[in-house]
């Protein structure tokens, strides 16, 4: 998504494009089938593409980041390897709410007949239900699993969004959450900063409101979500991280407490 976003940074800065205008663009969600060279040592654990190089990605053009086969970036591959190989979440019957559904993940979840999958987003044409994460139109306790990757940082009132995730989960249900996360310090936040240019400078993205820090697990706990922090460097060997192109990343695997 960001690689396309980088083309719009100028217009965003001049106020010619709103967040909705940007995220409604169908091509942000288009499947990636880039040309790539001969098979190599890099391998995508999502789509199986083997290549000498992956594509650059992000506003800074991170090298070997984006899979030329499925378009996934490092954090997507970490999330998928975690869900597939390190949990039983995708092996049993579950009602899944997929927030801001990524195409590659949506296709794989929908192929599993024991899962019922529902995508929701404010803008994305891939969503089944258009909704704001701070006011979800779903009954309390409706879902067994919520997947929410790199969404909360787009929401000024993230506490309201986290509370909604907790509300729509049944007790004992799970939420797997990812956010931009730097555990070296507290959350850096700017809810009053409206100018996308300023937010780009502070948080690395014109539509992010914060970079979450070491207090993020407490924000989850405050809503009744008990997180286990999963660090890609602890979960996966160096060999696997190099082969799959997975960088240092964290995810939060949360259990919904309460009756
Ligand atoms: Zn791939």
| Beta strands, count | 13
**Which small molecules are bound?**
zinc ion
Structural category = alpha/beta
H-E string: HHHEEEEHEHEEEHEEHEHEHHE
Radius of gyration: 18 Å
What's the mean pLDDT score? Answer: 91
Number of helices: 10
Largest sheet: 7 strands, mixed
Approximate shape:
globular
Amino-to-carboxy terminus distance: 38 Å
The strand line-up of the biggest sheet is 7-6-5-8-9-13-12
Low-pLDDT runs of 5+ residues are none
Percent of residues in β-strands: 15-25%
Helical amount among residues, as a percent range? 25-40%
Q: Which descriptors would you attach to this protein?
A:
alpha/beta; 259 residues; two-stranded antiparallel sheet; binds zinc ion
Structure description:
The chain is α/β, with parallel strands linked by helices. 27% of the residues lie in helices and 24% in strands. It is built from 10 helices and 13 strands. The chain has helices spanning 2-5, 9-13, 19-23, 74-86, 103-110, 158-168, 196-203, 216-221, 232-235, 238-244, and strands at 42-43, 50-51, 55-57, 62-66, 94-99, 115-121, 129-130, 143-149, 169-178, 188-189, 210-211, 225-231, 250-256. The strands form 4 sheets. The chain has a 7-stranded mixed β-sheet. A hairpin with a 6-residue loop joins strand 1 and strand 2 (50-51). The radius of gyration is 18 Å and the shape is globular. The structure holds zinc ion. Residues 44, 46-47, 49, 67, 69-70, 72 line the site of zinc ion. Zinc ion binds at residues 44, 46-47, 49, 67, 69-70, 72.
């Amino acid at each position: 998504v960001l690689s396309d976003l980088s083309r719009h940074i100028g217009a965003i800065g001049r106020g010619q494009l709103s967040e909705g205008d940007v995220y409604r663009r169908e091509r942000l969600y288009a499947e990636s089938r880039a040309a790539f060279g001969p098979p190599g040592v890099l391998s995508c654990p999502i789509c199986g593409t083997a290549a000498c190089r992956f594509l650059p990605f992000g506003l800074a053009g991170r090298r070997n980041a984006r899979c030329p086969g499925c378009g996934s970036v490092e954090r997507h591959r970490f999330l998928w390897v975690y869900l597939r190989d390190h949990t039983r979440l995708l092996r049993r019957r579950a009602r899944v709410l997929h927030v801001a559904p990524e195409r590659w993940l949506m296709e794989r979840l929908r192929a599993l007949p024991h899962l019922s999958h529902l995508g929701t987003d404010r803008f994305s044409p891939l969503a089944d239900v258009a909704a704001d994460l701070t006011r979800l139109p779903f009954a309390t306790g409706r879902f067994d699993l919520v997947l929410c990757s790199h969404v909360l940082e787009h929401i000024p009132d993230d506490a309201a969004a986290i509370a909604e995730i907790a509300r729509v989960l049944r007790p004992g249900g799970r939420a797997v959450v990812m956010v931009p996360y730097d555990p070296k310090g507290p959350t850096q936040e700017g809810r009053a900063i409206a100018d996308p240019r300023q937010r780009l400078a502070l948080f690395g993205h014109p539509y992010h409101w914060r970079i979450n820090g070491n207090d993020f697990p407490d924000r989850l706990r405050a809503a009744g979500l008990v997180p286990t922090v999963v660090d890609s460097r602890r979960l996966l060997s160096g060999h696997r991280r190099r082969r799959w192109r997975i960088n240092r990343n964290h995810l939060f695997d949360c259990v919904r407490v309460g009756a």
